[in-house]
Amino acid sequence: MAFAGRTAMWWARLRSPCLCATPLCVLPRLPPGSAACERLYSSRGKEKLDMSTYPVENIRNFSIIAHVDHGKSTLADRLLEITGTIAKTAHNKQVLDKLQVERERGITVKAQSASLFYNHEGINYLLNLIDTPGHVDFSYEVSRSLSACQGVILVVDANEGIQAQTVANFYLAFEAQLAVIPVINKIDLKHADPERVEKQIEKLFDIPIDECVRISAKQGTNVEKVLQKIIEKIPPPQCNTADPLKALVFDSTFDHYRGVIANIALFGGEIQKGHKIVSAHTKKRYEVNEVGILTPNEQPTHKLYAGQVGYVIAGMKEVTEAQIGDTLFLYKQPVEPLPGFKSAKPMVFAGMYPVDQTEYNNLKSALEKLTLNDSSVTIHRDSSLALGAGWRLGFLGLLHMEVFNQRLEQEYNMSVILTAPTVPYKAILSSAKLIKEYGKAEITIINPAQFPDKISVSEYLEPTVLGTIVTPQEYIGKIIVLCQDRRAVQKDMLYIDEQRVMLKYLFPLNEIVLDFYDALKSLSSGYASFDYEDAGYQAADLIKMDILLNGNPVEELATIIHSDKAYATGKLLCERLKDAIPRQLFEIAIQAAIGKRIIARETLKAYRKNVVAKCYGGDITRRMKLLKRQAEGKKLMRKIGNVEVPRDAFIRVLKREPDK
Amino acid sequence: WPYCRKRCSYCNFNTYVVPAVDEAAVRACLVREARTLLRLSQVKSITSVFFGGGTPSLATPGTIAAVLEAVAEAAHLPAGAEVTLEANPSSTTTQRLAGFKAAGVNRLSIGVQSLDDVELRLLGREHTAAEAQAAVEAARGLFPGRTSMDLLFGLPRQSLHAWTQGLEAALRLCDDHISLYQLTLERGTVLAAQVWGGALPAPPQDLLADMYQAARAMLVAAGFRHYEVSNFARKGALSTHNLSYWRAEQYIGVGPGAHGRFVPQGEGDCSREARVQMLEPIAWMRAVQSQGHGTGKRVMLSPLEQLEEVLALGLRTDEGITHERWGRFSPHLSLEAVFGAAGQGLQQQQGWMVLDSGGLRCTERGLAVLDSLLPDLLCRLQRA
C-alpha cells in the first residue's frame, strides 16, 4: 500500500469542494435506524391504488445519470413536483436522498425510486424514476438501477460540460442498450455554454445535437419537455401480464417493523398480497404481505403488473434474503431467472476497532444494523494485538468507507479506529502445502498479516481500474506526470472539444485508492474530473513491508506495497514513527524491512537524563502523583519487544496530517 | 517564611511579595503552630530544623530564635542538631548572618544560582555575582564547613563551556556542600512562558545530560560525594535535614504551604499522614490563631503509598534503600521479593540499578534517568 504522503484515516473532509454548497437538511435528524421508514411528506392516503389502469405500453422506466453535482437530484425534485407526486414547495431539495449523510454531502449513496403519474396527449402514463447514486464508488448501484430501466436521462452541466463520470455512466447505459436522452442543465448560469456541451455530446457519444434538451432544473425551465421526451424516446418495457410472474429484485431496504422491503421490477406476470413466491437464488418460499409503488414513500396497491416497478414485503427477515439481482417467481411456476448483474465487489478493506474494547458489543450491534441496509459492505471478524477485537470491513471505495463511518457516528453515535485501507491483492500459490491448506491455488489477501511469502507464490496480482480523466488541456502535463508516478499506463487520449481532453489510464487500484482524487483536484484547481471502473487483475511485483521497532515487527503497520514504492513509503513511515514514539531508556531503531532487508531506518536516541532536579518535603506529593500517573499510563502502552508505544501512536502515524 | 522581595523568573513556589509584613504576628503563629504540631506528633527528639521559603533570611533573627525556642520547649533539640537557614545573597550581610548564628542557626544554604550577571538577570535575581561571592565568603567565615550553595544549570542559551566555567569559579568559592539544579520550567513562571512562547530557546536534551555529567565529574574530582541527584558534599557535610526526606523519616511542616509527613500519635492515630498547611499566609494565620495550627489538608498514607515514597525518594540517594529501612515499612515483603526480578532483569543488565546486601540503589547511569525507571518499579510494587 502506498502511504507516501497520503495515508488516510479519518475522512472528515468532503471530497469535492463544490458539494459544500448544497443546502443542508430539510429533514430533521432521524432517530437511529429509522432512516428508511420515516417520511417527510404525507402519502396519498390509505386507499389502495388500482395499477391495472396502466398497461405496459403506458409505462416508462428510466434513470437519471450524471456527473456529481450536475443537477440530477434537482431534476428529480422538479419531475416529482410537476407530476404532482410531491407538493410544490421551496423545500424540495434532494427529496430522494433520505440519509443525513447524503444531504450533508450533497451526494446520493443509496438508490431510490419513485413512480410518477403524467398525462400526455390524453393518455395517463406511469413513469418510474429509479434514482442512482452519483459517485464512482457506487457505480454498481447504477448498473443495478439500470437493469430495471429502458432508458436514461443523461444530465450534463452546461457550464462544466462532459466530465469523467458522464462518460462512465453513458457507457453503462449504452452497454445496457438503453435509450439515452441528453439533457443540458443549468442553462440559467452566467457562464453556461450549451452549444459547446452539445458538440461534446455529439463528438463523444454520437448523439445528434438536436436531440439535446436544454433545461434549468433549478428554475423549472423546459423540465416539462423532458417528460415528453421520456414518453417519446424511451420504449415501454417488453413484457406481458399474461406471462408467469418474473420479478427482478434491484434493491432492498430494511424496516425494523416490517422486515425487508424489496424493490422489484416486473418483467412478466403480476403480484399481489397472498401470492406464494419463491426466490430463484435461495429457493426459499414466502407469502406476499403487501405490494405497492414508491411515490417515493411506500404506497400500497392491490397488485403490480408486468412492466411496473414497486416494492414487495414478504416476510423476509434479513436483507441477504433479498439478494440484489435475484428473480422472484410464483410457487410452482418457476421461470428462467433473469441474468443477475455483478454483485457489489469490495475494492478497499480496512480494519475497524472500537476505540475502547468495552464498546465492542455496542459497535457490533451498530455494524449489524447498518450492514442490514448496506449489503455492499463485507464484514469479517478480525483481531489485532494492538487494537483488540474488531473486524475487517470491505468497502466499494474510499467514499463508501467515509460514508459508512459517518453513518456509524451520526446514526449510532459510535466512534471507531480505522486502520490503513488496503486493496484486495491476490497470490497464485506454488507451494503444494499452502494450496492444500487454502483449498485453492489463487487466494485473495485482504489483510497484510496474511501475505504469503514469495517462496510459496508463483505470482502476485493486484487489482486495476480503468480510469477516465476529463480535464482542461492546460493541466495535461501535470496530470500525465501524476499518473506516471502512480504507475499508470495510458490507454487513450482524446480532445472532446478545443479545450477539453479525455484521458484514459490503467491504474493499479492501490495507487488511486487513498488520495489520487485529491491530488488530481489540487493540481488542476478543481477542474479535472475522475472516474474509474474495475479492470481486473494484473501481475505485480508486490512485497510485504514490515515496520520494526528494535527488530520486532509492528503488526498493525505491515503493508503490502509495490516494490518501486517501498523505499519512499518506508522512509516516510519511519520518520513519522520517530515523532510519535516518546524517547525511552534505550535507543530505538525504527526500521522498514522487506523480508530481512532493511530499507529505511530512523533512530530514536535514548534518554540520557530524565530525573527531576528538586525533590524535597514540599515536592513529594506532586511528584508521587505524577509518577503514579505515569505508572498507570505504562500499563496502557502497547509493548513491542521492549519498546513501549502509546496506543494512539500508530493511528497518528497512519493518519494523514493536514499540514504534511 | 513565605515572603520575598521579588519573584524570580523561574520560581513557582508559594511565595508572596508584600509591601510590609507584620513580623510579630507571623512569628507568633509560627511558634504556636510548631508547638501544636509537635505535641500532635508526640515526637521526643528533633534531629534537624530547616528554615526555608520564600526568603527566610528576610526574617529577623529574633523570629528564628523564637521558633527554635518553641521547638526546644516541646521536644528535645540536641545541641548538635542541624539548623539550616536558606539565605539570599541580597539579604546576608555579615552582621545579619552573625545575628542568625546567635539565634541558633548553624548551617547556611545560599541561593547563589549563578556567578554570571547576565544569567542572574535572566533568572530575575536581585543580586549580582559579586554580591553572591561576598555572601558566600561571609557565610564561610561564620559557618565554616557548614555553608552550602545552590547553582542552576540548563538555562536558555547557556553553553556547556559557560556552565563548566561557572562551576569552576564556584568550586574556588564553595565550602563543603553544593547543590546543582537543572532548571525546571514551571508552569506559570515568566521564564517558562518565554521558552514555550518561543522567545527563548529550550536547551537540548543531550546538552543537559552533558552538563550534568561534566559537573558530576568535576565535583567528584574535587573530592565531593554525589550523594543525591542534585546534591554533593565532601568531608561528610551532607545535609542531615534533606536526607531525612529521602529516607522517608518523619518531618513536621510549619508555616504557610509547608508539607509534613508524620504519625499524629497525639490524636491516638498510628498511621503516617501527609499534611499540607494552608497556602495563603493571612488565612493560615487566622487558622493558627483560632485552632492552633493551619493544616489545610491531611491524607492518611496507605502502606503501599508509604512504600512508593520510600522507593521514589530513596533511589535519589547514592545509598539507595537499605534492607533495614525497607523492612521498617514493609515487614513482610523484602526488596528481593518485590524487585528481585528487576535486579536480575533488564534494569540490572542495562546497568541502571543494583540490588545487593546494601539494598537497592541506582548506578551513576541509572540515577540520571531515574524518572524513566520509576514508573516500571512502581508497577512492580503495585503487583507485589
UniProtKB/TrEMBL annotation, chain A:
Reactions listed under catalytic activity: GTP + H2O = GDP + phosphate + H(+)
Naturally occurring in which organism (per UniProt): Amazona guildingii
GO molecular function: GTP binding; GTPase activity; mitochondrial ribosome binding
Domain Tr-type G: 57-238
InterPro entries the record matches: EF-4, EFG_III/V, EFG_V-like, EFTu-like_2, G_TR_CS, LepA_C_sf, LepA_CTD, LepA_IV
Name of the protein this chain belongs to: GUF1 factor
GO cellular component, one term: mitochondrion
GO BP, sorted A to Z: positive regulation of translation
Entry's transmembrane regions: none
Stated family: Belongs to the TRAFAC class translation factor GTPase superfamily. Classic translation factor GTPase family. LepA subfamily.
PANTHER family in the cross-refs: TRANSLATION FACTOR GUF1, MITOCHONDRIAL, TRANSLATION FACTOR GUF1-RELATED
Highest taxon above the source species: Eukaryota
A Pfam family assignment: EFG_C
Keywords, sorted A to Z: GTP-binding, Hydrolase, Membrane, Mitochondrion, Mitochondrion inner membrane, Nucleotide-binding, Signal
Keyword Magnesium in record: no
CDD domains assigned: EF4_II (cd03699), EF4_III (cd16260), LepA (cd01890), lepA_C (cd03709)
UniProtKB/TrEMBL annotation, chain B:
UniProt-listed SUPFAM superfamilies: Radical SAM enzymes
Gene Ontology process terms (BP): porphyrin-containing compound biosynthetic process
PROSITE patterns: RADICAL_SAM
Domain Radical SAM core: from-to ranges: 1-225
SMART domains in the record: Elp3
Keywords: 4Fe-4S, Chaperone, Heme, Iron, Iron-sulfur, Metal-binding, Mitochondrion, S-adenosyl-L-methionine, Transit peptide
InterPro entries attached to this UniProt entry: Coproporphyrinogen-III_oxidase, Elp3/MiaA/NifB-like_rSAM, HemN_C, HemW-like, rSAM, rSAM_horseshoe, rSAM_sf
Subcellular locations according to the entry: Mitochondrion
Cellular component aspect of the GO annotation: mitochondrion
Keyword DNA-binding: no
Gene Ontology terms, MF aspect: 4 iron, 4 sulfur cluster binding; coproporphyrinogen oxidase activity; metal ion binding
Family to which the UniProt record says this protein belongs: Belongs to the anaerobic coproporphyrinogen-III oxidase family. HemW subfamily.
Function, as annotated: May be a heme chaperone, appears to bind heme. Homologous bacterial proteins do not have oxygen-independent coproporphyrinogen-III oxidase activity. Binds 1 [4Fe-4S] cluster. The cluster is coordinated with 3 cysteines and an exchangeable S-adenosyl-L-methionine.
Protein's recorded name: Radical S-adenosyl methionine domain-containing protein
Gene name linked to the record: Rsad1
